[in-house]
Prior knowledge:
- The protein has 301 residues and is of the alpha/beta class.
- Helices cover 31% and strands 29% of the residues.
- 40% of the residues are buried.
- Adenosine-5'-triphosphate binds next to β2 and α1.
Amino acid sequence: MTNAIDIRSMSRTFGHSKALDDITLTVPPGAICGLLGRNGAGKTTIMSILAGQDRPSSGTAEVFGQNPFENEAALSKISFVRDNQRYPDGYRLHHVLRIAPEFAPNWNAGIAAELVEGLRIPDRTPIKKFSRGQLSAVAIVLALASRAPLTLLDEPYLGLDVTARAFFHNMLLRDYTEHPRTVILSTHLIEESEALFDRVVIVDRGRVRADCDSDETSSLAFTLSGTADAVERLSEGRALLLSHTVGNLKSVTVSGTADDDLRTQARTLGATVSPATLQELVAAFGADAPQAIRTRKGAHA
Ligand SMILES: Nc1ncnc2c1ncn2[C@@H]1O[C@H](COP(=O)(O)OP(=O)(O)OP(=O)(O)O)[C@@H](O)[C@H]1O
């Protein structure tokens, strides 16, 4: 089976700075994949290369088995709507909806109309005058109604209100279930979006830190919390990703899975062991570990 995305040893440098550093990553067809990581981690750079808008400095990136760069056949299978999408002066929504099918062979006017209504996108206002959230809403219409085999959504939520975000999630899941495709979604709203993801990729400083099915993330790290003494004893010799102290209480995120011995010791010492949430994982993989976070004057890990 050909992967939807196949990235091998890919790096991208800008001058002296390495935006992507030897990334290898595959995404099977028919998955919604969360692409997560801190600001500047490399998410947009990955998407731009997958969308054929940029090229790796070394290594390869394939979409459905083909290099997307200047490749019309590959590009016809990809929808990439960026947060900073520009529209010609004087364009209104109906202009965009009229022209969009020319670039999207699978365009579906029905789903576009449903999205326009649900996201309350005005048709009389020139797009140039749209609010930040209304611009995001137009991008979402273009991305979902294209029904492209690979849909790349880079921070689709900027400025979107809570009702619009919930509506977008419902529409994405419904349309994805009826018309399976591969969706890559980057976002910093992790808790709100995680229920969408079949797969999760976490990047930091241009490197892949995690790449797994979403139900496997809970085995990547765990959190120990309790008194500073107890947590320090329990975490001795373990690979700490993140550490946080408030007064005499301490919480650490530890790489790997907690074994039964550790759980028993934690019970004895009155400490708690819990799997790291996805949000904690992204924070931990983005920290300069082990990190001391100052929470009040004089208190740090
Ligand atoms: N055209 C460019 N020229 C120079 N540096 C660039 C260019 N594009 C990206 N970078 C750098 O590459 C790194 C990765 O940027 P990228 O936009 O991929 O991050 P991101 O994960 O999408 O971040 P965010 O969550 O803030 O959107 C950053 O350090 C950025 O400054």
